[in-house]
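Record 1 of the preview.
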Amino acid sequence: MNEFIRVAIYIRCAIEEICNQVELLTEFVSKQENCVLASVYVDEGHEKQKFKEMMQDATLGKIDCVVTKDTTRFSRYLPDLIRDIHTLKDSSVDVVFLENDIDTRDAYAELKIAISTPMLKEESHKTRERIKHGCGMQRKETEGCHYE
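->
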């Protein structure tokens, strides 16, 4: 008898991104052997209520694996990220971060996380600054001041 791995997907993003991430993650899970989608947890923006619910379900043995887009969905703060991964591992729950190509069953997962997470945080900061700068330029143009 084959046992299925109960997989949860976790999404934390802006509301307009949710459908894309649900599609990406459910497609990934559907292509894995012996996996069944058990739960979908979605938080919008900086909310983490569903994340807390997912962590609770993990400690209660309701899921075997969590799949999420990247490490920043859990946390941009490395100590919190590592703590949450350890909590899941203590409950025998694996985590797969798709865009980072990290699976916590890998012996080098924490090293990969320690290397990739600060880079993702920096990229997120740069993107936020570009967006803010672009909005400032747009505002100036509407006030009659144009940038070249």
